[in-house]
Specification:
Layout (H helix, E strand, L loop, with lengths): L5 E2 L1 E4 L3 H12 L4 E4 L15 E2 L11 H17 L4 E9 L7 H13 L10 E4 L15 E10 L1 H14 L3 E3 L2 E9 L2 E8 L4 E6 L2 E3 L5 H6 L10 E12 L7 E5 L5 E7 L3 E5 L3 E2 L11 H12 L11 E12 L14 E6 L7 E6 L5 H16 L22 H11 L5 H11 L3 H5 L11 E3 L2 E2 H10 L5 H8 L8 H17 L7
């Protein structure tokens, strides 16, 4: 890009909402620039519980509209990217002292029928002694319920939205911070600061503030505007332990404090446990789990599982700050709505500004569609929406049959070890061929930086997916950092960072 370039839309924020808005707008023919102060999905959007779900527990707070909207989106998303999203069955053990069985059955009936369901089976009651999910649980749990939702690789979902935006003509600038933006002459004039300290002057017909936890700060600071809504920052923390069960179902546990805790099969060898809900007032970029949260999650699991865990069993943790739409009277962070509000500031004759407050990962596509509808109308551009039936990059798998796609990949590239073929297929879908190129052996993929991580993949991630560091690769573009031996992680990180510093950077897609 060149100094002074004018765009139809400047998107500020490279989380799921910003990437989704950039994709939708670029696909409608708008010229788009997205800037993100850190890496794509560096914060909230890589720190979710990694579920595509309607939010069963939100029914208890009578959030029927939100649940219906999320359930409608659930199957749309599952079809769009079957490599990074797939159906998952959840087991809810019944604890009579917490919620009566009739109430749970009624909630699950609503959950099954609030929106049309084609891909996912409905709910049912189970006797724990007759179901594989009963074996790991304490003997006192005799019955439960099973229902369906979806799993998502959240950080890759963000990257794929940004990649699709780029392939529709958008410019994606990571590690680029908005310093200021002012309205002048019917447009926005913005200054962006890149990682090397250089300043870019850009012009935009409109701005979308999708800064997540920083949405209010950005409005009052760089954009110099008041906000009619505010966000409530809530910290959600997760722990990862060794695998606690061998089957492929996840668990949803009810706690006496009415919080819900998930235990989910994770990265083959692990169990993901979360999340907490704690009011947060610090810097969202510095959020981290504390000892009380770790103990709370361990205690929650120990209430249900025969095999007990302690903080010493925790292999990895992550935390994120969720920017929830502030509501009057919602003292409990768990009760704060997960819905969103789109605030359009469009004075007559002046360039529009749209700010995103709240939201959840399941409804990002719908949020983006509504946001671009509003911005398009304000700009006098009438272009229909398009994303509801469009696959994300790599998601154009025939009949969304991932297992058949994987079998074909292994047949065509028999030299790929099975676990590597599976990981690459899950990460890149049909784009896996762009990663391995014309390689005929592992040696053709170049240097191995870690088990299963070769230079060919680093080149692809650098040139196509905006990766610039070991952290980007090991913990966002993949979770390979979880699989390397703890004693070697630091040296692997240094080697990858040195590679990025040494290798010339090419323009991303």
């Amino acid at each position: 890009m060149t100094q002074g370039t004018k765009y139809d839309l400047l998107v500020v924020g490279g989380g799921i909402n910003g990437a989704g808005i950039a994709r939708d707008a670029a696909g409608r023919g708008l010229s788009v620039l997205l800037c993100e102060q850190h890496d794509l999905a560096a914060h909230t959007s890589s720190a979710s519980t990694k579920l595509i779900h309607g939010g069963l527990r939100y029914l208890e707070y009578r959030e029927f509209g939100l649940v219906r909207k999320a359930l409608q989106e659930r199957e749309t998303l599952l079809r769009a990217a079957p490599h990074i999203m797939w159906p998952l069955r959840f087991v809810m053990p019944h604890m009579p002292d917490l919620r009566p069985a009739w109430l749970i059955r009624a909630g699950l009936f609503l959950y099954d029928h609030l929106a049309r369901r084609e891909l996912l089976p409905g709910s049912r009651g189970i006797a724990m002694r007759d179901h594989p999910a009963g074996a790991p649980l304490v003997e006192s749990i005799k019955r439960g319920f099973v229902y369906s939702d979806g799993w998502v690789n959240d950080a890759r979902l963000v990257v794929l939205n940004a990649l699709d935006a780029a392939e529709h003509g958008a410019t994606i600038l990571t590690r680029t911070r908005l310093l200021s933006a002012v309205r002048a002459g019917g447009e926005w004039r913005a200054q962006l600061e890149q990682a090397d300290g250089s300043i870019l002057d850009v012009r935009a017909a409109s701005v979308a503030n999708a800064a997540g936890p920083w949405v209010g700060e950005l409005l009052q600071g760089a954009l110099g505007r008041p906000a009619s809504h505010s966000v409530r920052l809530v910290k959600g923390s997760h722990i990862v332990t060794r695998r606690l069960f061998d089957h492929d179902h996840a668990y949803i546990f009810q706690n006496p404090d009415k919080r819900i805790i998930f235990a989910i099969p994770y990265e083959h060898d692990y169990t993901l446990i979360g999340t907490t809900d704690i009011e947060y007032r610090g810097d969202p970029a510095q959020v981290a789990i504390n000892a009380d949260e770790t103990q709370y999650l361990c205690d929650s699991i120990n209430r249900y599982f025969r095999q007990k865990i302690s903080p010493a069993d925790v292999r990895w943790t992550y935390s994120g700050v969720r920017p929830l739409l502030e509501e009057e009277g919602a003292d409990n962070p768990s009760a704060v709505t997960r819905d969103y509000s789109l605030e359009l500031d469009s004075p007559a004759g002046e360039a529009p500004l749209l700010s995103v407050f709240g939201g959840k990962i399941t409804t990002f596509r719908k949020l983006a569609e509504e946001a671009v509808d509003k911005l398009s109308a304000a700009l006098g551009k009438s272009v229909p929406s398009w994303t509801s039936g469009a696959p994300l990059p790599g998601g154009d798998i025939a009949q969304a049959n991932f297992e058949r796609f994987l079998a074909q990949l292994q047949q065509q590239h028999a030299w790929l070890p099975a676990d590597l073929a599976h990981r690459l297929a899950r990460a890149y879908g049909t784009r896996v061929r762009n990663v391995i190129g014309h390689a005929q052996s592992l040696a053709d993929l170049g240097r191995a930086f870690a088990p299963g991580l070769y230079e060919a993949e680093l080149v692809y991630l650098r040139d196509t997916e905006w990766a610039r560091s070991a952290q980007d690769v090991l913990w966002r573009r993949s979770k390979l950092g979880l699989h390397v031996e703890a004693g070697t992680l630091d040296s692997i990180t240094r080697d990858i960072d040195a590679w990025f510093a040494r290798e010339p950077e090419r323009q991303s897609a």
